[in-house]
Amino acid sequence: MKIPQKSDLGVSLEHSRSGLRDSHRRSLLSLLFLVTGSALLVFGTLQLINGHIWLGTFEYLVSGLLLWSRQGLRNTRHLHRWVYGFLVSFCFFSLLIILVPEASITAFVWILMIPVLSYLLLGKSEGLRLSLPSLIAGCVIFAVYQGRIDSTFAIIDLLNMVLCATLMLFFIHIYETRREEAEKRLFDMAQMDSLTGLANRACFNSVLNRTMAECNRNGSGFALVIMDIDHFKRVNDTMGHDAGDQVLSRIGSLLTERLRATDSVGRLGGEEFGLILRDLSPDAAYALIEELRERIASDEISYGEARIQLTASFGIAHYPDHAKSSEALYRLADRCLFAGKRAGRNTVSQAGVAMLG
Fold first, then answer.
1. Can you give the pTM of this predicted structure?
2. Where do the domains of the chain lie, and which CATH numbers do they carry?
3. DSSP codes joined into one string, 2-41
4. Element (H, E) at 161
């Protein structure tokens, strides 16, 4: 049996706040610092030429801060704080520039960038919490400080601002919702065996590694069980692969029906399954697996007019009593399994416990 590799398939997607991994968010934020800092350097110069000394000086200072901060961004462990710091500052500056209409009559367009950046860097929930109040504040400030609403032209200008802000937020929110749903489906597909609905090998190995880490912290243990369906090849050869698929699906159902909520089960490949039994003594684990063996042996699977009866063999190893690494635990459970098969199949074989047929 192949020794599992220590991987955690999809873990970066599972823990990400947005559609971007942290490495991509870091790169994007660094680019935003560079572009924004460079743009403010140009705008600051133009503001000084136009006589807006305080605004130009402020833009120079912010530009210098952004360009200098790119060095710290590369190695920071608090990337999420940097993201919030940039976005909140960007929102504040976008609102401030609207308060100074003589600086630029089109400065309000920057407020429409807030939903794009917020959803991209923070994800749907946090992006909405930051974008919605910022857009509302921007529309209010635009209405108050861009002149009195005393003509149809002024009303049109205000409605354009409100409508664009509303549509921008709405479309980005819909897009991010659909993206999260698609990502969730892909993540589930990557973790699931499509035939049985159980965890696939990569996911099962990830659960095993996490279980070992948890047991290391709290001083508990668990049993790793490797199960193999006896003479499964005979079913495929005599009745076809469709019959074999139905057998595998039924075995998966029998396993999940009996196991507890704290236990885990996965299909490791072919007719081989893996089980993780938490907080059970060797005797209790042996008794549970023996019950599963009997349940499988007494079950009858209908396939057309035929009736299929199968048995299964099990190998059990305990952590940390028998092994303290996933590789060693797999090897020991695998040896127990094949010892049971050599003894006649339809057995439960556990390190230090006699086999029962």
1. 0.62
2. 11-190 (no CATH), 201-356 (3.30.70.270)
3. PPPP---TTHHHHH-SSSS-HHHHHHHHHHHHHHHHHHHH
4. helix 152-191
